[in-house]
Write a structure and sequence with these properties.
Blueprint lengths: L12 H6 L4 H7 L3 E5 L13 H11 L8 H20 L2 E11 L2 E11 L2 E7 L4 H18 L7 E7 L3 E8 L4 E5 L3 E2 L4 H12 L1
Parallel strand pairs: 1-7, 4-5
Antiparallel strand pairs: 2-3, 3-4, 5-6, 6-7, 6-8
Helix pairs in contact: 2-5, 3-4, 4-6
């Protein structure tokens, strides 16, 4: 099958989103297999001492703000989740973090979360999560090649509009990416979402 990627050209993560490439096709071009199925990511089982406050804060502001642009969604819906993730995991968060692995794998991570050499990437989109997944696939592959710690066998990534979150998992040894078909809504599924994010990084 003909390659989608032109190895003589440079690409950024966001360029893959703009090109409207199917996630499976992009994964194949980089030597990975992608399947779409129920992901069943593990949940953190410990106590969440301020999950109700987080949900109440988000529910309180939703009637009063317009979420028509990505900046509003990031500041009002995604940032509170990230802040609580830091609270629970004491992880390091890099925002708009730039990396370059190759000319075809480079760009900015909206959120790169790291704890004891474990990585989690979150990509924020205004809409179109399907092609947002294409961008997430490129970012996961870049992390696989960039991450020197072999002990992290699976790398988790999320793509979100702020109101909807979806996940993917890259198995590094098998070069297999699973695109989960589950969606998590904010604020309805906020506890499940937080528990998945915590478990992904601890």
């Amino acid at each position: 099958m003909k390659s989608i990627i032109d190895l003589t050209q440079s690409y950024t993560f966001s360029k893959f989103f703009e090109l409207k490439i199917e996630p499976k096709d992009l994964a194949r071009d980089f030597g990975y297999n992608l399947s779409r199925k129920q992901l069943n990511l593990p949940h953190f089982e410990g106590e969440l001492d301020r999950i109700m406050q987080l949900k109440e804060r988000i529910e309180e502001i939703l009637p009063y703000v317009s979420l028509s642009n990505e900046t509003a969604r990031r500041e009002l819906l995604i940032s509170p989740v990230i802040i609580d993730l830091i609270h629970y995991t004491k992880s390091e968060v890099r925002i708009e973090y730039q990396i370059k692995v190759t000319d075809q794998l480079q760009g900015y991570f909206d959120y790169l979360i790291e704890k004891e050499q474990k990585l989690l990437v979150i990509e924020a989109k205004k809409g179109d999560l399907d092609y947002g997944f294409t961008q997430l696939v490129a970012e996961l592959i870049a992390l696989d090649k960039w991450q020197e710690n072999d002990s992290q066998t699976n790398i988790i990534g999320a793509v979100t509009t702020g109101k909807i979150w979806e996940f993917a998992q890259l198995n590094r040894s098998e070069k297999q990416i699973i695109q989960g078909w589950e969606s998590y809504r904010i604020p309805e599924d906020i506890e499940d979402l937080i528990r998945i994010l915590i478990q992904a990084i601890i």
